[in-house]
Request: fold
Amino acid sequence: MLSKKIQEALNEQIRIEAESSQVYLAMASWAEIQPGIDNVTAFFYQHSEEERQHMLKLIHFVNERGGFATVPALPQPQLTFPSIKHAFAALLQHEIFVSESINKCVDIALQEKDYATHNFLQWYVAEQIEEEALARVMNDKLELIGEEKSGLYMFDRDILTISMAHEQ
Ligand code: FEO
Reply:
């Protein structure tokens, strides 16, 4: 059985994962109408889908542990970006925010001596390490490219390989 405090923290995390999915969906839709970045577009759509899976995993956990997962209302995310570099910088900042939020949940699980939730959250802790690392790699690459179109062409060509390599 989940304590009230844990349930609240996990429902807040459900909201944040849902919001992340929306944020990346907006990036995907924006990228889709930019010329020549089909793989960047695919990356954002895929990332949005992964966030939805993160949300669902939490929903099932809360409900299976005798709580009630609440589906959140969401604000409209940022719809357009000055550049691809800006979109990836926003992605990194967002992942850092998500990691902080997961850490808060872990803290609360320990305070409440809820070791099942603590154990469940370790998957998210590991996932956040991967996601932040991946976002940093992409930001570093975009930094190297600068404003060059040929660099962006290669970035788009390589992005799915880079993201798959990180998931293994
Ligand atoms: Fe589910 Fe990228 O945080």
Notes: The two ends are 34 Å apart (CA to CA). Helices lie at 4-32, 38-64, 84-111, 115-145, 149-167.
